[in-house]
Amino acid sequence: MAMQFKKPSRRQFLIGGSVGVAVGGGLLLGYAVSGPSRRELAEGAAAQGGERFVTTWLKISPDNIVTIYVPHADMGQGTITALAMMAAEELEADWSLVRAEQAPAEKAFANEALGNRFVAGEDVPPMLKGLNAAAWTKIAQFMNLQITGGSMAVRYTGHHGMRVTGAAAKDMLVKAAAARWGVSPSDCVAALSTVTGPNGQSATYGELAADAAGYAPSAAPVLKSKKDYTIVGTARPRFDIPGKVNGTAKYGIDAEAPGMLYAAPKLAPVFGSTVVSYDASEILSRRGVKKVVEFPGGVAVIADNYWRAKEAAAALEVTFDTKGGEAVSSETIFAGHDAAIATGKSEDDKVIGDAASVFAAQGADIVEASYRVPYLAHACMEPMNCTVWIRDGKADVWVGVQDPLGTRARVADISGIGFENVKVHPMLLGGGFGRRIPIREGFFNFPSEIDFATIVAKEVDAPVKFIYSREDDIQHDAYRIASSSRLRVALDEKGLPTAWENIYVHKDEPGEAPHIPYAIPNQSIRFVEVENHVPRGPWRSVAHTQHTFFNESFIDELAHRAGADPYEYRRALLEGQPRHQAVLDLAAKKAGWGKPLAEGRFHGIAVQQSFGSIVAEVAEISVEEGAVRVHRVTAAVDCGEVIHPDTAAQQVESGIIYGLTAALYGEIAIEGGAVAQTNFTDYEMLHLSETPVIDVHFVESGAPIGGLGEPATPVVSAAVSNGVYAATGKRIRQLPLKNHDLTPAPGKLAQAAD
Amino acid sequence: MAITLKVNGTTHSLDIEPEMPLLWALRDELGLTGTKFGCGVAACGACTVHVDGVATRTCVTPVEAVDGAEITTIEGLAATSGAAEGMLAPVQQAWIDAQVPQCGYCQSGMLMAVSALLAENPRPTDEDIDAAITNVCRCGTYPRVRAAIRSVTAA
Question: Which residue of A369, A747, B14, B35 has the smallest Cβ count within 10 Å?
Fold first, then answer.
């Protein structure tokens, strides 16, 4: 299959080009695979009035403004600014002349840097593997890859795409200047968006852009040395922030189109149920109500104002069929997990040595514990929505998504309108966290609000803004799975594990999430599959959320059992893992691990590698009136290299608060086949008043750049739970913490409550 | 029934149901989309505006309850605070300086809640802030929200 992405030959490159002699050839990375022909595509999509694409994703206009087109959604993680910084650094641009925006949903802007890494056999964020595998079957589908997730923007697109693009563009500008002045390029210097020559000549990038476009992008431009960076590694103000403080930022829900109507759904509460009957006669007589449209799993009410549509939908009586899902509850789901684990019929995930023999040995000191976590909703602040206008065989779509091109393909499929006739207008996302992905191959393939909006829009002669209520959003998500894990170890005389067994429910993404960094000679990590009808999807850090809680809590149990300090115990088992040890050491040192804390305060620690970064967190907690209070979280993060120190720290803060919310409160319960929770009133959120002080410390180890959007999230549940053990002697083996009464039993404070 | 809404200094007469929540009158009738829909039950604060200077969650506020009142939305916050044309209210500038927003969706409501608090209580204690700013932010901008408030109150 990889042959479809083989390096373009010099001949292909020359034929493809229409802007002069392509010099280059050889290895072309990312941006340049399609060569000048692709550049022309991009010009058609985004360039106007004398602007030229010097290389894809990078545009220089005659007034010397550089615009970077970023093929990722900025959900608030600062991607667009960070990636523009990486390109601008290599371009030697004057940052004050740099602009950046999200790339249009056109194939010219598909994310080839990611594709090339995949072809080269490098690790692609596992949450995308399912999608990629499906897409392999059709090259056109692969070209639709424009996804944001897997904490990959900076480490893939930025490192392999933006840096190379900026460096190649700089080379082209220098060549253009040198030719203009009749001097050698090596005698010219590019700096601050200007090329200067050996005899005092000077030209701005804007003045050189048209000439530069005549050169083929260089095959393998020389990248700057980190010590020469002036932009990367500094905290540049984000491009997206001004519009977010004055009300002008436009999210999907703010889309406007002429004559637009609004749709509110009445959705089948039980996943998979479909409409049997409904009587719309009363609501159709209501003010502003235009129409009702049935779609798989519900009925949408169309009105001239969302409130009118929502009120009418609420009043609409719909009978749904029953397909058996009604018998499913959280109790039956977890009982199913326990039964499946107990059968012993599990599949191998990772096997080292011979754990079974160790467990079977005479006199083995065996410790076992079972853990579980519930379903979680994403609860993005912006409820799910999608605006679709279908007319004259064309569709316009306004939506904030983590994959605009994938959305375009999805709408084309659902509507029957060809890909070329679908235009997606990417809008800002009011939160993503894995929720806003239109196709979830590899996860539960279920219809989404984008599908529904498209089906509804086909039946309405106007643009339709389809909006989920918060209740719809909580009850019709693609959830972080409920999972269970039975952990077992055999211990040596020092209390160190000689065998580690884990049987868990569902082999989720990323595949390495259940694996442990600890030096245990015999490991048997296995899984069982238990199907049910609840949709599942990627949730910030995906499978790391459950496995980090399981593994890092259990290792903490073992440390206490051995009478060891939990930090030192981990450290000893991390022999040969210097990056893990370094973040563990730094977090412990910065938190003052082992030093006296204020009265009633306790520490818990945990560490996990995910998405190429390693994060250790120390939580400082107290237990007040039977509930945990988190005062401070100290995080040490090795992400290889920090591009933007401020947004990097912000992502760690964000990840911790997202994970802490889930650890304290997060629980989607299934009752009668449907989600029991409804809104923020019963799916509770962390508030400002409960937010701990968060200290973030980075280790720039020089390892390949790791992601930052997710890796801080999974660690905090274990760090806090381990702190709860230190405070109360109660081992938390099920989340969320709100379900545990932590009031110490009289006289039993220091005993493990197994 | 005609409802009179005075929004950001402009008076609108709207023929809408008296029970329509102010949120949807602002967004769908007046096109002021800076005020956000988050929960519909006054649990998150994304829809906060000022009604006669008081932070008010509009998703549960019927328009009849604010008929004739002075309503300020995020679009009018700078002007209401006395900022010159094209300039920002002090809290908005503090938000930029501290780079508070991430996805930004909750920040209109957050800014309206904070500006109302500071108008009433220019030197809030941390407890005052905790009690008044109960807006939900899923991106976890809370530490920076507090820092940005403190940059204003320390000025």
Answer: A747
Return the SS3 of A527.
strand
- Are the CB atoms for A377 and A540 separated by under 8 Å? no
**What is the radius of gyration, based on Cα positions, of chain A?**
28
Of B17, B107, B136, the CB nearest to A680: B136
Contacts of A715 (CB under 8 A, 6+ apart): A548, A552, A606, A607, A608, A615, A616, A617, A635, A656, A659
pLDDT in tens, A488-512: 999 999 999 999 999 999 998 889 9
Amino acid identity for residue A371 in this structure: Y
C-alpha to C-alpha distance for A18 and A657, rounded to whole angstroms: 52
Domains observed in chain A: 2-225 (3.30.365.10), 252-323+384-467 (3.30.365.10), 540-739 (3.30.365.10)
| Residue A595 CB partners (closer than 8 Å, separation 6+) | none
B chain contacts of residue A249, beta-carbon cutoff 8 Å: 104
What is the C-alpha separation between A138 and B82, in angstroms, rounded?
Answer: 58
Determine, for residues B138 and A379 on separate chains, whether the beta-carbon distance falls below 8 Å.
yes
Residues in chain A: 754
Residue A459 burial (CB count, 10 A): 15
| Mean pLDDT along residues A312-329 | 94
Contact between A557 and A731 (Cβ < 8 Å): yes
CATH number of B2-77: 3.10.20.30
Contact criterion met (CB < 8 Å) for B28 and A306:
yes
- Classify residue A239 by its DSSP letter: T
Q: What is the mean pLDDT of residues B41-70?
A: 97
* Of A512, A550, A524, the residue nearest A348 (C-alpha): A524
pLDDT tens string B92-144 = 999 999 999 999 999 999 999 999 999 999 999 999 999 999 999 999 999 99
Q: Which residue of A has its CA nearest to B103?
A: A76
| Signed CA dihedral, A618, A623, A624, A629: sign only | positive
Question: What string of H, E and C letters represents the secondary structure of B44-95?
Answer: CCCCEEEECCEEEEHHHCEHHHHCCCEEECHHHHHHHCCCCCCCCCHHHHHH
- Side chain identity, residue A736: P
For A477, residues 6+ apart whose C-beta sits below 8 A from its C-beta are A377, A378, A379, A435, A535, A537, A668
A89 touches chain B (CB under 8 A): no
Task: Single out the residue of B38, B7, B146, B22 nearest to residue A474, CA to CA.
Answer: B38
Query: Cβ-count burial of A595 within 10 angstroms (0-12 exposed, 13-18 middle, 19+ buried)?
Result: exposed
Contact list in B for residue A254 (CB cut-off 8 A) is 33
Q: How far is it, in rounded angstroms, from Cα A401 to Cα A381?
A: 14
Direct distance between the N- and C-terminal alpha carbons of chain B, in angstroms, rounded to an integer: 47
Query: Per residue in A100-138, pLDDT tens?
Result: 988 766 665 555 444 444 434 344 433 333 333 333 223
Pairing label, strands A693-699, A627-638 = parallel
CATH of B79-153, one of 3.40.960.10, 1.10.150.120, 1.20.1080.10, 3.30.470.20: 1.10.150.120
Indicate the DSSP class of residue A228.
G
For an interface test with A, give the residue of B37, B81, B100 to mutate (most A CBs within 10 A).
B37
Interatomic CA distance for residues A552 and A607, integer angstroms: 7
CA neighbor of B28 nearest in space, from A291, A264, A448 = A264
Q: Decide: A316 and A292 in contact? Cβ < 8 Å.
A: yes
Q: How far, CA to CA in Å, does A495 sit from each of A210, A360, A524, A567, A733?
A: 70, 18, 19, 15, 21
Residue A562 has pLDDT above 50, yes or no: yes
What are the residues facing A467 on neighbouring strands?
Answer: A385
